[in-house]
From TrEMBL:
Cofactor note: A monovalent cation. Ammonium or potassium.
PANTHER family noted in UniProt: TYPE III PANTOTHENATE KINASE
GO biological process: coenzyme A biosynthetic process
GO molecular function, one term: ATP binding
Pathway: Cofactor biosynthesis; coenzyme A biosynthesis; CoA from (R)-pantothenate: step 1/5
GO cellular component: cytoplasm
Active site, UniProt feature: D115 (proton acceptor)
Gene3D superfamilies named among the record's database cross-references: 3.30.420.40
Protein name per the record: Type III pantothenate kinase
Length: 268
């Protein structure tokens, strides 16, 4: 399948991507359950019922809601599920994982977030053939996923995103406030007040965790890995210099959507 529209249903919002010339050319973002916004977007991209939709997401109820809405308007959305990624023994004629050049080897592949697999697939597709790839997503949660040069996804790490960190400090302490998140690379060495101290701590928790894990991964790689980053709060990494030697570092807001576009190749 070659999709015209790819959809990522995330924890905080829904993103549509309009595909043209083998890439995600435009993106639109919506809150959950926004049929008015969805309806307004259709004519902007000249979408008719013949358009091919590929949908993936980590919030099952919102995925169903969107697919039901699309079906009610004459579209036939197809779902991207984990099963596309964890059996590399499929018959070649069925366009299984071998045709994607990617397969996951985690212990429980049915439980891993589909967004993590899609990010890892897109990262592997972008990296040079002889280099490993790391997909870094900074959103509600922060995830890192590691892919060998042969397309084997070995696993990764999950930690709270910056907004969850801020909310947890407010919810589980007596006096600390919940701060607004401004995802930029910090320049201060210390915070002179409570709010600045929290902001600096969160920023360095995000940067330090990712830097350490990418260092550990790079130390076992024959060639410097490539890192591809995405997510609403990825701005922390603009201008950041990783400790590890990297083949390259790319921030791509379309990474998950492009993973959906690539995965759709395995659909009939």
């Amino acid at each position: 399948m070659t999709p015209d529209v790819v959809v990522d249903v995330g924890n905080s919002r829904i993103k549509w991507g309009w595909c043209r010339d083998g890439r995600v050319a435009e993106m639109a973002a919506f809150v959950h359950d926004d049929p008015v916004g969805w309806k307004r977007q259709l004519p902007l991209w000249n979408l008719t019922p013949s358009a091919r939709w590929a949908v993936a997401g980590v919030v099952p109820a919102e995925v169903r809601r969107l697919c039901d809405w699309l079906s009610s308007r004459g579209f036939e959305p197809q779902l991207i599920t984990n099963e596309l990624f964890f059996d590399d023994d499929w018959d070649e004629e069925l366009d299984g994982p071998r045709s994607l050049g990617f397969v996951t080897r985690v212990d429980e592949p049915a439980r891993i977030g589909t967004d993590r697999l899609l990010n890892a697939l897109a990262a592997r597709d972008r990296a040079p053939d002889t280099c490993s790839a790391v997909a870094l997503s900074v959103g509600t949660a922060i995830t890192l996923d590691f892919v060998e040069p042969d397309g084997t996804h070995v696993g990764g790490a999950i930690l709270p995103g910056p907004r969850l960190m801020a909310k947890s400090l407010r919810d589980y302490t007596a006096k600390l406030p919940e701060i607004a998140i401004n995802p930029v690379l910090p320049t201060a060495v210390w915070g002179a007040n409570t709010e600045d101290a929290i902001a600096l701590g969160i920023a360095n928790a995000v940067l330090g965790a990712a830097d350490q894990m990418i260092w550990d991964w790079a130390a076992r790689c024959a060639k410097p890995p490539w890192v591809f980053a995405t997510g609403g709060d990825v701005g922390y990494f603009r201008g950041f210099v990783f400790t590890a030697d990297l083949g390259g570092f790319v921030i791509d807001p379309h990474l998950t959507l492009d993973g959906i576009r690539l995965a759709a190749r395995a659909l009939p």
